[in-house]
Write a structure and sequence with these properties.
Shape: globular
Radius of gyration: 15 Å
Strand order of the largest sheet: 2-3-4-1-5-8-7-6
Distance between the termini: 23 Å
Number of strands: 8
Largest sheet: 8 strands, mixed
Number of helices: 2
Helix content: 10-25%
Oligomer: single chain
Order of helices and strands: EHEEEEHEEE
Length: about 120
Amino acid sequence: MANPFVHVELNTTDVDKAKKFYGQLFDWKLEDVAMGPSGQYTMIKPGTGTGGGILKHPMPGEPSSWLAYVAVEDVAASTQKAKSLGAKILRDVTEVPGAGWLSIISDPTGAALGLWKPKTA
């Protein structure tokens, strides 16, 4: 697949409750990492398949939700292409230090999707 799903992320209202639930339900390995001044990020390491993360929902008052990320060659170009096709930009291109770049769009039907370009060594 040219643009595979590469990461799934849970934006949750209760990180500890989510970690306990999913850790027990699926026996995932969960690893907490510092996310700079914005707090903590929990990496989901399922062993095989697409991994992900859990974090405190960045939009207060919004319900917990899963967000899938798709790999792209150029986050800025893909974000602008999505906009030209009717998407709304929920989060413009943002660097994740040491990891890569992301943006979050809402397609014309209202579904959110993350775009991701990993940093190459």
